[in-house]
Amino acid sequence: MSSLFQKRMYINGVETNVFTQSDTTLAEVLREQLHLTGTKVGCGEGQCGACSVILNGKVVRSCITKMKRVPDYANITTIEGIGKPGALHPLQKAWAIHGAAQCGFCSPGFIVSAKGLLDVNDSPSRDDVRNWFQKHRNACRCTGYKPLVDAVMAAAEVIRGDAPAESLEFKMPEDGRIWGSKYPRPTAEAKITGTLDYGADLGLKLPDDTLHIALVQAEAHHADILSIDTAKAETMPGVVAVLTAKDVKGKNRIFGLVQSPYHKGDGWERPIINDTKVFQYGDVLALVCADSREEAEAAAREVVVRLDPLPAYLSAPEAMADDAMEIHPGTPNVYFTQPLIKGDDTGPIFKRDDVAVVQGDFVTSRQPHMPIEPDVSFAFKGEDGLLHIHSKSIAVHLHAFMIAEGMGLTPDQIALASNPMGGTFGYKLSPTSEALVGVAVLATGRPCFLRYNYFQQMTYTGKRSPFHISARMAADRKTGRILAMEHDYSVDHGPYCEMGSVLTGRGIQFIGAGYDIPNIRGMGRTVCTNHAWGAAFRGFGGVQSVFAGETLVDEMAYKLGQDPLEFRYANCYREGATTPTGAIPDVIALPQLLEALRPKYQEAKKRTAKESTDEIKRGVGIAVGVYGAGADGVDSAEVFIQYDPDNGVTLGCSWEDHGQGADIGAVGTTHEALRPMRVPVEKIRFSWPDSSKQPPAGPAGASRSQVVVGSALKAACKAMMEALSKPDGTFMTYEEAMAAEKPTRFDGSYSSMGSVCDPETGLGTPFVNCMYTIYQAEVSVEVATGKVKVDRFSCVADLGAINNRLAVDGQIYGCIAQGIGLALSEDFEDIKKHSTMIGAGFPYIESIPDSMEVEYFENNLREHGPFGASGAGEGPMVNPHMAVINAIRDACGARIYRLPATPDRVLEALQAI
Ligand code: MCN
Ligand code: FES
Ligand code: FES
Prior knowledge:
The protein is α+β, with helices and mostly antiparallel strands. The structure holds pterin cytosine dinucleotide and FE2/S2 (inorganic) cluster (2 copies). Belongs to the xanthine dehydrogenase family.
């Protein structure tokens, strides 16, 4: 029996009593006993600040504050005590209008932290705000921090009386048009008040008979499973079931989406619960289902697992060695290849005397996604007879399809819903815990809940797949034109194949993208390894390709004695150019962007030259980025809109919201499409995705939603207006439509017109709508230590017409921050070292410059995009890291060939000069 003590506190000004234990955390008391779920728990390790509260005037992280340390009668302020929906604090209003809440999971913690600052200093400088967030470990993965500092500064002005309260309100344009504006996203208010329920919050609302799941996981990379003894665990208090592979009713595999005959496996190699072998660290061997989380975890520790270790292949070269065994017996470790044959044979070109050649061997990192909210799923049997699974899925229909057969169901027996999510950045294009909670419900008949801790988030979700690339480029010495390129690359995709072939295809599509290269020979291969499985990650394959391509371009400029910007200007896509896969670019955007960047670049060159010293060398680097908005080939979406009795509409579209802004994306597009009907924006209702309620709109991946789902929404709006138009040019009200027996539900669909790349030659037009971004970074390199600091960032972007400026600014700032992490610190190679946010090199505010500027060009309206829009989610992610890497080269001559550019690698590169 547990012993308790009584604690009296003033929570948000109200005297509150709890009976608790010494080692219980304040976060647990607030969330689980007092149901103040505005306080979020992310890392649970004191590293993210999501759980910040104010305790007796000091900002503390409640996840590491034990109740024994909370003084009696302590005054505690949580987000609920700062402001409420309809009665927002200036900080919350500022958060909304500055787009400071994307996924919003970090927002309550940041707002509470900022309140703690403004309580002691209502005139902070931007640096004061940045230092405060650094000191309190407030981490954000979405926003690049700049909008957060903007918001605090704006709120402080109002609090001091230096600016009117209205300065924190959005001003509706006179014509009522929100397309292209900074209209705050519809979910902002719920996010900034802490009232939006994420997965763990919803878990607290499940009935009392809900079972908690603890995982028994493999602590080996590759092994045969000899035995799993659950006998003792089954007798532990509160335990209802201990499930192993034999308890899974279906095929016990997650389908890896193999469709191509060129793919050597069958796609059924990923177990739900591993049965015969362990393929990677963390693979699940058993599920313990118990009445409480503590009981489940205690019993999981008593499950006895015997493994027979096998050789672990932790990189592509190791798994490709002649003596390496097949990780999935019967399928070669190299299971997919994609050649590229464009133009003339490149061999003779490289031998010519009049060409300059540059080359390199590149390795990219296993970048971890590091959302602040770890993975969470729950499931239950519905009154409708369906198995309901709620998770962070960004592909609800696809995931139901991928996991159904493994559980012995058909996809239509599953209702897969996505909860509000604290960021995924692509890892959730893979199913993670969905099938685990599904299996548990099917076995026990009770609702089941599973939340990963941050170690599990790091070790048992997919990662960015490292590319090992050898590449070379030839250019005419006299004309400076690129003539040819060759590359050969191996993709370390971990043990499970899902999306491996698509990812491998990205190499041929994007190494050298942006430049007119007439002759290319390339070969990519997908390799099965025993490191973390490869998942989608924002800028999927583009990031890795740009590392090689933009290094070669930069080095070629140096070799030819040309300025890096001017060399790019001379060689970038113009009329008549073709992409690496031989397609005609959708628009000609790059010359205009480079022209716009040129004055900023020249200014930066002068500034860095002036500020450089022998100890601290400064430099400027640029990088071109091109990426497709849409999945390869034909990409489709289906949606509907429902006319509501108050003459508003509810959107029946499964556009999943990682945090990027599916709400504002769908609402903004619909508002624009229904402008003739003048439906007020507040009456356009976003609904959270559920595969049983909405038709398949496709995943929120591949930066496809604004383009593909947006076009389907536009089609549904057109159908609605055609059906409800009246002869006088107005439209029927809902009542009139009912009286006239008109339908109130209107379907819309859209298919894009691309063609997948040819499996033999690699040629094709996979994307008919692309995003174009060019970044410029300024860095300082400390020569003695190899430490790099990023001082400034600029971006010029052509993303077509922009739906929402706040959303798109936020995408770009967030990509800059993730790009800096990718360039300098982030990795997941060493399971021990890299399994926490700090250990994996998460970029806090001090690593991200406050100086970031973005300029858009919207004159290239996209033919295949609603109202001329392209995407925004990933284009801006493919190249910021390269601007940093090129800036290091400019600063000190050190060329980095392996990411991340940690101080030891920079020093090594300096020594190699
Ligand atoms: N948008 C716009 N105008 C445009 C293009 C886009 O206003 N011309 C807006 C859209 O309305 C949407 C956002 O920008 O709010 C991104 O749109 P889009 O490029 O269509 O991308 P998706 O909605 O399909 O989102 C997925 C994309 C991907 S693939 C990853 S990974 C990703 C990302 O977006 N993960 C994110 N952005 C993220 N942002 C956050 N905060 N968290 C993640 O996990
Ligand atoms: Fe408490 Fe991360 S610091 S949840
Ligand atoms: Fe900060 Fe998503 S808005 S983590």
